[in-house]
Design a protein that fits this description.
Blueprint lengths: L1 H17 L4 E2 L2 E2 L3 H53 L4 H62 L2
Antiparallel strand pairs: 1-2
Length: 152
């Protein structure tokens, strides 16, 4: 992900600035143009990360819809099979059992897919939240340092 490369560049900028001659205690001088350029690149990258998470959420919804459609198709197929076999009591009972089993299996499959999609989406969102939080912390620290340096 590009955001990580940009964060590494920001960290490298801070590390390189520590090696310079002008130090004021814990403060360092950073090239403003380089810092602002990195911040602009981060801003441009963050929307891509959000688009990716939205794409994952859309894919999750598609998977859920497909699973539900398949469950409905299987249910309808089971009902059609049961209707064709109405002539004999034993066959009718077997058809109902088969329909119930198919429906149960479809519901279980849909639940597993839904749970997996939810877990995947939650994991991606947690990762994105952590990444964005970290980036925001770095940005805030950088801005804070710039503000401190600008004060008389």
């Amino acid at each position: 992900m590009k955001i990580y490369a940009l964060l590494e560049q920001l960290e490298q900028l801070a590390n390189d600035s520590r090696k310079g001659r002008l130090r004021f205690g814990n403060r360092i001088m950073v090239d403003e143009d380089e810092l602002l350029d990195l911040i602009d690149q981060m801003r441009a990258t963050i929307p891509e990360e959000i688009r990716q998470s939205n794409k994952m959420l859309t894919e999750r919804e598609r998977i859920l819809t497909t699973a539900q459609s398949e469950a409905e198709r299987l249910r309808q197929q089971a009902e059609a099979d049961a209707t064709r076999i109405v002539d004999e009591e034993k066959l009718l009972a077997e058809a109902r059992e088969r329909a119930d089993a198919i429906l149960t299996e479809a519901n279980e499959t849909a639940a597993v897919v839904r749970k997996g999609a939810d877990e995947y989406a939650a994991e991606v969102l947690r990762s994105l939240e952590q990444m964005l939080g970290s980036a925001m912390g770095h940005i805030r620290n950088g801005l804070s340092e710039l503000e401190k340096d600008r004060r008389p």
